[in-house]
Amino acid sequence: MKPSGIITLMTDFGLRDPYVAMIKGVILSINPEAKVIDISHQVSAGSIFQGALLIRETYPYFPPGTVHVAVVDPSVGSDRRLIAVEVDNHFFVGPDNGIFWPILQEHDISKVMHLTEDRYFLPVVSYTFHGREVFAPVSAHLTLGVTLESLGSPIEDPVAIAIPVAREKEGVLYGEIIRVDNFGNLITNIHQQEFEEYLSSAPPVIEIGNLTVKKFGFIFVDVEEGEPLALINSSQLLEIAVNLGRASDYLEKESGEIIGTMVRVRKSGNVL
Amino acid sequence: MKPSGIITLMTDFGLRDPYVAMIKGVILSINPEAKVIDISHQVSAGSIFQGALLIRETYPYFPPGTVHVAVVDPSVGSDRRLIAVEVDNHFFVGPDNGIFWPILQEHDISKVMHLTEDRYFLPVVSYTFHGREVFAPVSAHLTLGVTLESLGSPIEDPVAIAIPVAREKEGVLYGEIIRVDNFGNLITNIHQQEFEEYLSSAPPVIEIGNLTVKKFGFIFVDVEEGEPLALINSSQLLEIAVNLGRASDYLEKESGEIIGTMVRVRKSGNVL
Amino acid sequence: MKPSGIITLMTDFGLRDPYVAMIKGVILSINPEAKVIDISHQVSAGSIFQGALLIRETYPYFPPGTVHVAVVDPSVGSDRRLIAVEVDNHFFVGPDNGIFWPILQEHDISKVMHLTEDRYFLPVVSYTFHGREVFAPVSAHLTLGVTLESLGSPIEDPVAIAIPVAREKEGVLYGEIIRVDNFGNLITNIHQQEFEEYLSSAPPVIEIGNLTVKKFGFIFVDVEEGEPLALINSSQLLEIAVNLGRASDYLEKESGEIIGTMVRVRKSGNVL
User: Fold this and answer.
1) Across chain C, how many H-helices and E-strands are there?
2) Chain B residues whose beta carbon lies within 8 Å of the beta carbon of residue C16
């Protein structure tokens, strides 16, 4: 695969500390022509699950041959492996902790390499910053045309993580909230196709905790200001939003406790 | 107009979610040589007014031929138009909701196009993310030399928004606070010229709520630590600051309520 | 020295306001090929000390010939000098307020220029935004090959700031906390070498306020979840961390009061 010259970065480092800039400095020291694009550095600290969904959702918008570096790595320095992956015409570099699992799971063909060739690392590797000393230089070498095969040895058993899926039970479609965005919109794991097959044109009633949403629309202004509605968002997922408001404020939960909240979809007129 | 190859982005998306990165990925998929620069992604959610002033203040520092994408778009998906603008040797791409009005208002000559040529869009356009599916690809095509004229049909009636202006009434100059910056400085809509013409060399007294400022200086250290002063800032606007402190903390208002607060300038010695 | 074409930016401007983008616009107007990389824009407002340590820690990861612009400048517009520095094969541009002192102190050979040649500035220089009007254009000209010598006149007495150093007293090694990172890790000013020489293989006991840490490890997972440990971090400094937790939460202090807190290292078995 021909590299695009683009490297994306996703971490839980935040933007205050020097860590992200160090990674960029290392990359540009090896390939001054690399283009480095931030996906997000505000993944919740140590949340592999959140990072896994974020990179899964974002990578397809980049050109084929892009290298995606993901550093959400609470076990940094332990014996967890470091890997580079080639799948769906993109490269991925990061810890083998499941962060690329949703992408691997969706594609039949992939190559996963255990990073063992330390000639592609920085000369000194610390215990706590493999993003800088391994992932950054490896990603830069990939943009220069170093092949995946030369980075280490293939593995067949990358770490998997559990991805919650929507399921129907006794006539109700159950899902959960997987993200709360900057606007307070509640993104669920219920895909448009599941949603439509379940409803088969019946109008939906959606219940999340003590919030009941009966309006289904296409855009935020389909309801009055301050009123909640359900819609299929631009990633084809069921989302709860409030026109000119924050749906997350309607849940009476601390913001840290919203992810994982159960979402129930019923057909209007159903008896529970 | 020759494109500079630079695209700036201003949104209310924040930096946690994948939305900004998706826009950058789309741009680089069309023009891998484009340079994408963030202006800010922390415009208050849905605040067209705030975004309009921010892009107005920032664009002149970029080279002629730069494309400025502004996505503050609470009515996304409704029948509001999508536009591209050429004015003052810069391009602007965004919703027709007034976000470019302060710039259009200041220039006699401009071209405003309603974006209708969907061959310059992504193949699938969702209801809720026109930034990714329309503004990103259109901006990338502009950097490749696609002309404004080929993007759609000209319109003569872009949406206008009310921009509060300073005015004199019964011997007092009235303005309002239009921005609170990272340092807690209070930026007003009173321009240096209005301020100086009103005062004609009399010393000013400035009143904002219960805060009275009698010191006028040029730099923050012109007053003691913790003391407020008024100055003309680097954008030629009257600004209230506190040396090594936050003027916004002196107002006894919630931070969300400061924008729009009335500012009164009197000549020292005036009787109210 | 051959410029790398890269300019890094470190400021206390935050990311909400247009100030950082204005600097980038000015740079790209002078050198459209410059690569601008953000180090951090979240230095605490006016904290020269924090900025000085941050740039000192980060610059070595960039290629030789990189220009580092640092704008933490609470006395902007006063008679403090503006300088450009060449040291350790890197360029630095900013106010002469000590922000580059830790770097200058560590190298015998350096060139420090007082920026007086205003043909390398923007035509209009305001009182309060020298980052935009002086540092940005000067840094862009450096990437184009303008020599340090042509920017002004050499000075021998750049402003120094006090950098707290670890010291041993009556058998105890004293240091202090110099940074709290995004993960709540407490970074001290005790360098690996000082730490090891002091202990000479005795096990350490580390005391910070009411927190006592007896575990010394290499990686976070060396202790149980929620347990504190001391480690030498990737910058060779003693750091206190909590596995899957925030060490900063254990100090019973407001986050703004943690920097400067005394750190005491004793040899286990020592009587105080």
Assistant:
1) 6, 15
2) 40, 42, 181-182
Region A11-29: mean pLDDT is 97
> Within a 10 A sphere around the Cβ of B252, how many other Cβ atoms?
8
Q: Does B155 touch chain C (CB under 8 A)?
A: no
pLDDT digits (tens, 9 = 90+) for B26-83: 999 999 999 999 999 999 999 999 999 999 999 999 999 999 999 999 888 888 999 9
pLDDT, residue C77, reads 80
Contacts of B57 in chain C (CB under 8 A): 18
At residue A269, the pLDDT reads 64
Interface list for B 187-226 with C (CB within 8 A): 218-221
- Give the gap in angstroms from C-alpha A228 to the nearest C-alpha of chain B: 15
**B61 to C25: CB separation less than 8 angstroms, yes or no:** yes
Q: The domain C6-154 is classified under which CATH number: 3.30.428.70, 3.40.50.10790, 3.40.50.1820, 3.90.1200.10?
A: 3.40.50.10790
C61 touches chain A (CB under 8 A): yes
Which among C22, C29, C46 has the least Cβ separation from residue B63? C29
Residues 6+ apart with CB under 8 A from A105: A160, A163
d(CA A68, nearest CA chain C) in Å:
18
pLDDT tier, A185 (very low <50, low <70, confident <90, very high otherwise): very high
pLDDT in tens, C3-45: 999 999 999 999 999 999 999 999 999 999 999 999 999 999 9
Is the pLDDT at A57 greater than 70, yes or no? yes
Chains that contact A by 3+ CB pairs under 8 Å?
B, C
Under CATH, domain B167-267 is a member of which superfamily?
Bacterial fluorinating enzyme like (2.40.30.90)
Asked if the Cβ–Cβ distance from A29 to C5 is below 8 Å, we say no
pLDDT digits 0-9 by tens, B184-239: 999 999 999 999 999 998 999 999 988 999 999 888 888 888 999 999 999 999 99
Residue A116 has pLDDT above 60, yes or no: yes
Residue of C nearest to A37 (CA): C37
Selection from C15, C168, A7, C121 nearest residue B182 by Cα = C15
Q: What pLDDT digit, counting tens, does each position of A89-109 carry?
A: 999 999 999 999 999 999 999
Is the CB of C28 less than 8 angstroms away from the CB of B42?
A: no
Q: C130 CA to chain B: closest CA distance, Å?
A: 9
Q: Is B214 helix (H, G, I), strand (E, B) or coil?
A: coil
Give tens-digit pLDDT for A194-245. Answer: 999 999 989 999 999 889 999 998 888 888 889 999 999 999 999 999 988 9
The verdict on B61 touching A (C-beta cutoff 8 Å) is: no
> How many Cβ pairs within 8 Å bridge chains A and B?
92
Give percent above pLDDT 90 in chain B: 84
Q: Supply the ipTM of this predicted assembly.
A: 0.93
Domain ranges of chain C: 6-154, 167-267
Q: What is the pTM of this model?
A: 0.94
CB of B233 less than 8 A from some CB of C: yes
pLDDT at position A97, please?
Answer: 97
What is the Cβ-side half-sphere exposure of residue B1, based on CA atoms within 13 angstroms?
Answer: 22
Q: Which of C41, C47, C72, C182 to mutate to test the interface with A (most CBs of A within 10 A)?
A: C182
